[in-house]
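Hey, I was hoping to borrow your eyes for a little while. For a while now I've been wondering how a particular protein folds. The fold is given in discrete form, as structure tokens running alongside the sequence. Could you read through the record and tell me how the tokens relate to the sequence? Take your time with it, there's no hurry, and the full record follows here:
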Amino acid sequence: MTDLEIKKSISEKAMKYGIPTPFSLLYEDLPDEFKREFESSINQINFGIPIVKYGHSNGNWVIIGTKELAIKNDKIEFISIKEIKSFDVPNSEREKAKQNQSNRMLRKFEYEILTVTTFNSETIDIWLNKKQDYYGFWHMMRRFLNWRNNDNTNYS
């Protein structure tokens, strides 16, 4: 798939899962000042096309690009989509959700942190708003991993 095909597919899926939200938007809908600043930080890497920004009320965010993720906690870090091995809910989030929500089926809507693990065992936590943003981001990442596993998308 080309970058434009990936962008179209991910944008459609993001809107299906509720974008825009109070903290998350399609990249093209972000303020121009933010886009200029972000684009200056990716001009030396092969980020691809920025597609969607998932933010959190604490100021952290993640931007999904066609080739990389940009994750801002204290600083901006980049992870290539092709380097992502897995993503999971940290045990601390599972325990917190268990205390907040007794119904096991609804607990996933209580999570705020998702841990991404690379093939070289590096981990990075991503902060996402509960419910809709968390669920939507999870599905965006599943789409990328499915494409990679089906080997029909070029990430280089």
